[in-house]
2-deoxy-D-gluconate 3-dehydrogenase (SAR92 bacterium BACL26 MAG-121220-bin70), 255 residues
Amino acid sequence: MTTEFDVSGKVAMVTGASSGFGVHFAKILAARGARVVVAARRVDRLEALVAEIKALGGDAVAVAMDVTSSESIATAFDQGEAAFGTITLVANNAGVADVRSALKIDESSWDAMIDTNLKGVWLVAQQAAKRMIEAGVGGAIVNTASILGLRVSFGQSSYSASKAAVVQLTKSLALEWAGKGIRVNALCPGYFLTEMTEAVFASPESQSYLTSSPARRAGAMDEITGPFLLLASDAGSYLHGVALPVDGGQSIGNM
């Protein structure tokens, strides 16, 4: 069925594809016709994801990638291109979290946060854009930021700083690359139920916090599908530099 969110014929890369949003993005892109390069450090999980996608009639390939290493990123792009051709849709999703008060963050933890969440996003986006430009094609890059890039919450100073930087980086890259046919936008998710957050959200304290938010609950993974596809597909062809909150109103409520 033809829809506004059709990505048939596109070659997509999803970073951080071994869990959470990355797995979800890879599946929904493949289900809508894209050939998907799934990238992460945990290749065993990627291979299982590729097998699942192929079993459902999709097409995918797994590549190892450490987003803090420009060499690893270039090699992953080389392997993806060898399999499917120029990558023109990137879900720039790899990231880490670290909940602790500012006085307890040491220098190595700070550097690890910034290296993954900011430098990694920049390196992947830059590599993708260079290759699109060299191939004479446009495309779309969707960076995963956070509502904590728009607001702050207690005990999240390094994470919030990294995601706020991703929002500004997204806008800067969009400004530079729009004329080259490359759209750069950012998703700003709130609190979603994933394998990493399921145990945390089960606690009474988390439930109390979530029920005090405007939507009074965490998001289900399917609820980020439409916003992601809007930014990733041609349905969002006039969107550049958007930082889109998908958060059940958390960014406008009490945090």
In short: The domain at 11-243 is CATH 3.40.50.720 (Rossmann fold). The longest strand covers residues 182-189. The CA atoms of residues 38 and 119 lie 19 Å apart.
